[in-house]
UniProtKB/TrEMBL annotation:
Keywords: Cell membrane, Coiled coil, Membrane, Transmembrane, Transmembrane helix. The chain crosses the membrane at residues 46-68. The keyword Transit peptide does not apply. GO terms for cellular component: plasma membrane. Residues 23-94 form the Lipopolysaccharide assembly protein A domain. Residues 80-107 form a coiled coil. It comes from Celeribacter indicus. The keyword Iron-sulfur does not apply. It comes from the Bacteria. This is Lipopolysaccharide assembly protein A domain-containing protein.
Amino acid sequence: MRYIRYAFLAALAVVLVTVALANREVVTLHLLPADLAELTGLSFAVSLPLFVVIVGAIVAGLLIGFVWEWMREYKHRSAASTHRREKEKLAREVDRLKTDKAKKDGDEVLALLER
């Protein structure tokens, strides 16, 4: 399984290097379209190689997806935490009841063995 992972990472690296070499041209990214930039006075632009823009968009998409899933799964994590606390509470109650029953019956050896 380890070799399959290494092979996949090597293939991914080859693809990323190939895309980077094929897209070295410098492009200009504008914050807003030209007409809207004139209207608002916000004319921010940056020049970057195209492969940086492509890889940056992929990374941004992954981060947005991870955050989205983390927020979506909150209810499941909350429910699991509630169930875990309830399970621990019930386990403590069962242990207490076993101990009380053994003490009531007067057999301390059985009480120790049941623990």
